[in-house]
Amino acid sequence: MAISFNQAFAGHDKMLEFRSARASVLANNIANADTPNYKARDITFGSMFDEAKNKLRLASDDDQHIQGSSAADDDSGLFYRNPSQPSLDGNTVDMQREQAEYAQNSMRFDTSFMFLDRKISGLKKALTGN
């Protein structure tokens, strides 16, 4: 029986990619908390999934076939947050919310990493017999 890594990792590898991308977006918001007119951004797993799905190309076996492609740009998974209390300088970053979201994202990253580590350990034990 062949081992499929897509099935073996149960999506935890993709979740780590998402958590890393979200940490970057949240850190960017925190870094720009004092920048006038900066708009806070965020990303969801669903938006990243849709972005990846849109980037898939259709297979064609003839030059006369229409090429299926997406016009999505690199920021298509990001969205702007609605501010709960907009500031006078136009900045929409709520530092307490950003820090809480970053901490929660970090804990979820650690959890996904732990699950992935246990999956890999189980596969190694199955292969080596130890």
Automatic annotation (TrEMBL):
Coiled coil (residue ranges): none
Residues covered by region (Disordered): 60-91
Composition-biased stretches (Polar residues): 82-91
Source superkingdom: Bacteria
UniProt entry keywords in alphabetical sequence: Bacterial flagellum, Cell projection, Cilium, Flagellum
Entry-linked InterPro entries: Flag_bb_rod_N, FlgB
Domain Flagellar basal body rod protein N-terminal: 20-39
Localization: Bacterial flagellum basal body
Predominant cellular place of this UniProt entry's protein: other
Subunit text: The basal body constitutes a major portion of the flagellar organelle and consists of a number of rings mounted on a central rod.
Family from the record: Belongs to the flagella basal body rod proteins family.
This protein's name: Flagellar basal body rod protein FlgB
Origin species: Marinomonas arenicola
Source species taxonomy: Bacteria, Pseudomonadati, Pseudomonadota, Gammaproteobacteria, Oceanospirillales
